[in-house]
Amino acid sequence: xxxxxxxxxxxxxxxxxxxxxxxxxxxxxxxxxxxxxxxxxxxxxxxxxxxxxxxxxxxxxxxxxxxxxxxxxxxxxxxxxxxxxxxxxxxxxxxxxxxxxxxxxxxxxxxxxxxxxxxxxxxxxxxxxxxxxxxxxxxxxxxxxxxxxxxxxxxxxxxxxxxxxxxxxxxxxxxxxxxxxxxxxxxxxxxxxxxxxxxxxxxxxxxxxxxxxxxxxxxxxxxxxxxxxxxxxxxxxxxxxxxxxxxxxxxxxxxxxxxxxxxxxxxxxxxxxxxxxxxxxxxxxxxxxxxxxxxxxxxxxxxxxxxxxxxxxxxxxxxxxxxxxxxxxxxxxxxxxxxxxxxxxxxxxxxxxxxxxxxx
Length: 360
Description:
single chain; alpha/beta; Aspartate Aminotransferase, domain 1; 7-stranded mixed sheet; 4-stranded antiparallel sheet; 10 helices; globular
């Protein structure tokens, strides 16, 4: 057994999960093995929805592998990256025994999945300095080793704080944790970042895994398609822990169409627009009264501190502009997170802020 599989819960190392009708990979023309209807629903628009879908569609795995520069065997596709987070915690962490390390303020699903599993959560808080929020990676490694953690989740670019961690630093952390812990780098906003993906290092460093999603830059949030990029042996373990049919056929087809060459070209163009709008909006916001700080960001959002966040939040709602209230998060009691919209939407945000200042 590989050192990586030593991180998997002992009771799941030889667990094969539910053997669904499609998992066997059988082929044929008359399907009488899954108790499905032989007829399509009258509303079926050609998806063949009367038949259960492939649990891990080969065409989608291959397309994602090409997109992220890995092998298809290193791709686990699921219902957004949220499912992969949940699968990792359930497969590696024994309730009450194996901790998860996170760096708050950060995306909340790491802690939610850990709590649902009964896995202890160990925190290494981000530090807010002149250059923005930063992470002490030595402290992360020390915390993971001292606590016996099985998982470290790091978000880069970080949500909601916006900073990215240099690839060399992440690789050094993975090497330090080798044989002890799986380092999971969440690259949900990677398309907007200057930092390279960590995916190319997975083969060399098998205790490194990467989360990606089609929900952000690829504009497929409603399709709920995300993936984990990891060592093939870990992918296989997680497949055995996954629900039998996680990917609806219409969503798979939408994802394949959304990853065509033409669609990818348009996505790249839109990413450039978002990056330009992110910097324009940052400079415009810095000039607004009542704003304490606008953090530089490598994602498609800005974290902003206000002198009166509640008043601004309500003012924007009254103008029909919805932003994310971050005040319940640690260290962010005066902050709102603002997604980068279209140029017209960003102008509307700025107009609402200016109107509020004029009224005051």
